[in-house]
Amino acid sequence: MATKIQKIDPGIARYTFQELLSPEGENDMPAREAYEARKMYKDVPYFADLPSPLPSLYKKLYFGRVDTFQNGILIKCDSSLLKQINTTGQNVFVLNFVADAFADLRDHLQRVADHGLLNSNSFYTQLTPMNGLERMQDRFPKFYRVWSGAVGAQINSDSYTKRKVVDFRTYVRALLSYMEARLLPLPLTTTGLVVSNASTPMMSGLAIELAAEDYAVDKPKVKNYILDPNFRYFVRAARKYGFYVDRNGPWKLVADPLSAPMLAYLDAYGVTKETFFSTYYDRTYTLDYEDLHMSLMKMYNQFVIENPRVVIKSFATVGCPSGERVEKKVRRQVNPADLHKMGEIYWLDLYFKIRIIETNVKFTSYHDKFQTMIDVYRAVGLEKALKFINNEIKPYLYSLQLEKSPLTKSSEPVRIGSVSDRPTAVVGMGGGSSY
């Protein structure tokens, strides 16, 4: 192994053989040591002469979170699209075609092992899934509770702001001010959450974890998996059935949906390369508008429940010499009809501003962008106006920086390769059909 590694990349010759086989990287290390350790794990070609793994912390950071045009995506709430993997003691669901491919891969490995062609003392001889789809939708209520508590606390911490927040509109103004101060590093919209580090790579329905391991600790990745006697065969077999092995977690398989093997499994469900995303996913910008209505309504109403009254004090002045006056106002909850009466232009403006803040975009003139969006809205309707906003924000997607470590910034567009790992079209440039 050492000879092969050094032949491929002489730059790693500065590491000892023991360091290569026992990488020390983990999150609790001091920053400089962590950087060096992570860099070593990143640079060492553990997959030399094997099909390319999924570099989930690097070039393919957004795999399963965006489509071929960099639109955020979220798996549809349709149970018919899912299938349970037959496994012991676990309820593991993934997309239906992924379950089929995995079943065939597992059967293949078992047949080879039964013929004595694989080492029986191996993690990869009998695959036992531990985890599959984790619905992002299940996390949203928690995020909104965090936002509600943070904004409420901020309003109540300042007497001037507290007096000003008397209804939904003034609450929203306080929310925008809070967001602009960047006191809470958490997006608010569905799109923002899906393409942030608040989301999970398991949300796509494409991934299967075969072990419950810590991705932040590098040593077991090599010791327990990469050095496994069947690892190299497993990686090749996985790619034959359309799976990537995750480089950052060699116990995880990720389906490459637009690879030739996976397209064959998709064909059994009448799904093609062209219809894959529309069949299994919603583009999140199409969900944002209604989701924002509901989340802000719940946040504001919770604030009202906890703070039903506001006391406004005024003091004697030359123009009003009568002395101190105390006025009590009752904050009232809102319902969907109340929000609807505020008008679509109000909500489009609010949504546009929130998305700008989330992505830290600096437009030279928001007014011009807003006016163009209004022209689109009046000419072709709400759906096209939302698409316009999405297209304005989308080029700045990577400014969200899912990972803050210098080693884990993704500076390139998302790509998903074919089985032979031929070059593929770049997402969002020229409308390439590969993922």
| Biggest beta-sheet profile | 3 strands, antiparallel
Strand order of the largest sheet: 4-6-5
% residues in beta strands = 5-15%
- Principal-axes shape call: elongated
SSE class: mainly alpha
Query: Which runs of at least 5 residues are low in confidence (pLDDT < 50)?
Result: 1-8, 400-435
Please, what is the average pLDDT?
Answer: 84
Annotation, overall tally of beta strands: 9
Q: What is the H/E string?
A: HHHEEEHHHHHEHHEEHHEHEEHHHH
- The proportion of residues forming helix, as a percent range, comes to 40-55%
Number of domain units: 2
Give the terminus-to-terminus CA distance: 33 Å
The total count of helices amounts to: 17
Radius of gyration: 26 Å
Oligomer: single chain
How would you sum up this structure, described in words?
- The protein folds into 2 domains: 46-136 and 199-273, Muramoyl-pentapeptide Carboxypeptidase, domain 2 (2-Layer Sandwich), CATH 3.30.1380; 140-198 and 285-394, no CATH class.
- Residues 1-8 and 400-435 have low confidence and may be disordered.
- It has helices at residues 2-8, 17-21, 31-43, 96-114, 140-156, 159-164, 168-180, 190-194, 219-226, 231-240, 260-267, 276-280, 285-306, 336-341, 344-359, 366-380, 382-393, and strands at 73-75, 82-84, 93-95, 207-209, 243-246, 249-255, 281-283, 309-314, 325-330.
- The protein contains 17 helices and 9 strands.
- It is mainly alpha-helical and 435 residues long.
- A hairpin with a 2-residue loop joins strand 5 and strand 6 (249-255).
- Helix 5 crosses helix 13.
- The longest helix is centred in the last third of the chain and has 22 residues, at 285-306.
